[in-house]
Amino acid sequence: RPRVLSGIQPTADSFHLGNYLGAVRQWVAMQETHEAFYCVVDLHAITVNPAPEELRRRTRIAAAQLFAVGLDPERCTVFVQSHVREHTELAWMLSCQTGMGEAARMTQFKDKAAKYGESAAGVGLFTYPILMAADILLYQADQVPVGVDQKQHLELTRDLAQRFNSRFGQTFKVPNPYILKEVEKITDLQEPTAKMSKSSSSPQGILDVLEQPGPLRKKVMRAVTDTGTEVLADEENKPGVTNLLRIQSALSGTPIPELEARYAGQGYGTFKKDVAELVVDTFTPIRERTEKLLADEAELDKLLAAGAERAREVARETMAEVRERMGFLPTS
Ligand code: AQP
C-alpha cells in the first residue's frame, strides 16, 4: 500500500470548511487505500505563540475532530506531532540542507510576515516549511493530500528529498502532492477571492465545522455574491457564487452544470438556502461526535498515545538511516 501523510494545525477552536473539503475529507477516503499517517501539527502551531492553555485545548479539539470526521484508529495512524521527537530532529538536519534564499521565497511566510510585521515574525515561521518537509519525509510518504496553498511547501519538500538523496544516497521517498482541483481553494464568504483561513478570515467569512446551525445558516445566506441573479460558475465575474457552487457540488456529489440547470431562473435565495442546509447536515453529526470525544479526555489521550507509538516506529527507522548516512556516530 502506498503511504500517505498529512497534518493540520491546532490554530483555532475548530476546523473550517476549507480544511474539511480541501484536505481532511480526502484523508478519510485515503485511509482505505493507503497506509495513512495523520498528525495534529502542534509544533507548527507554536509559530504564532499561542497561550499554553489554548494550545492544549486546541490540540485536543483538533484530534477529536479528526476522529469525528471518520478517521478510524484501526485503519490509520492519528497522532500529535510533538509526541514524536524525530520531527524536530530531522527538521534541524534538513535546515542545514536548505538555502536561505530558497526558504525566503516561500509565499506563505512572506504573507504572514507582512501581517505580523517583518520583525515580529519569528524564525519558526520562517523555517516552518522545513519542519513540514521533515513531517512528510520521516514517513516516506508517497502522497500528501493538501489544499493548493501548500503546493509550494510540497515543492520544497521534494527538492530537499532529492538533494539529500543525491548527497547522501537514496534515503527518502520523493512525495507527490495530492490536490483535488475542485476544492483546492475554498474561499472566504465575505471576500470570495481570498482563501478561507483560520487566522485571516473574519468570523462572517468562515464556516467552522463545530459551529451551531443558526450561525452557519446566517453566514451562508449573507455570503457575498453579486448584483446579478444567475447561479453560474464564473470565477472571474462571480467568485462568490462560484465558491458556493463548488461547496454545494463537493458536499452533494452533484456536478456543477447540473446545479446551474437546477437553479436556472430562480435567483440566489433558494440556492443559498440549499447550500446552508447541506453545510448544516454535514457539520452537525461531526460536531456531535466531537463533543462526545472531548467529554472523555483520558480516552482521547489514550488514542493519541497509541497513534504516537505506531508513528514513532516508522520515524525511528527513518532517523536511524538519516543519522548513519550523514555520518553521526551510533548511540550505544
Ligand atoms: N480555504 C482552503 N481551501 C482548501 N484547502 C484549505 N486548507 C486550508 N485552507 C483551505 C488545507 O487544510 C489543511 C490544513 O491546513 P493548516 O491547518 O495547515 O493551515 P493553513 O493551510 O495555514 O490553513 P488556515 O486555515 O489558513 O490556517 P492558519 O490560519 O492557521 O494558517 C492544509 O492541507 C491546507 O492546504
TrEMBL record:
Catalyzes the attachment of tryptophan to tRNA(Trp). The gene is trpS. It comes from Microtetraspora glauca. The lineage of its organism: Bacteria, Bacillati, Actinomycetota, Actinomycetes, Streptosporangiales. Coiled coil: none annotated. The keyword ATP-binding applies. A motif ('KMSKS' region) lies at residues 195-199. Its EC number is 6.1.1.2. This is Tryptophan--tRNA ligase. ATP binds at residues 9-11, 18-19, 147-149, 186, 195-199.
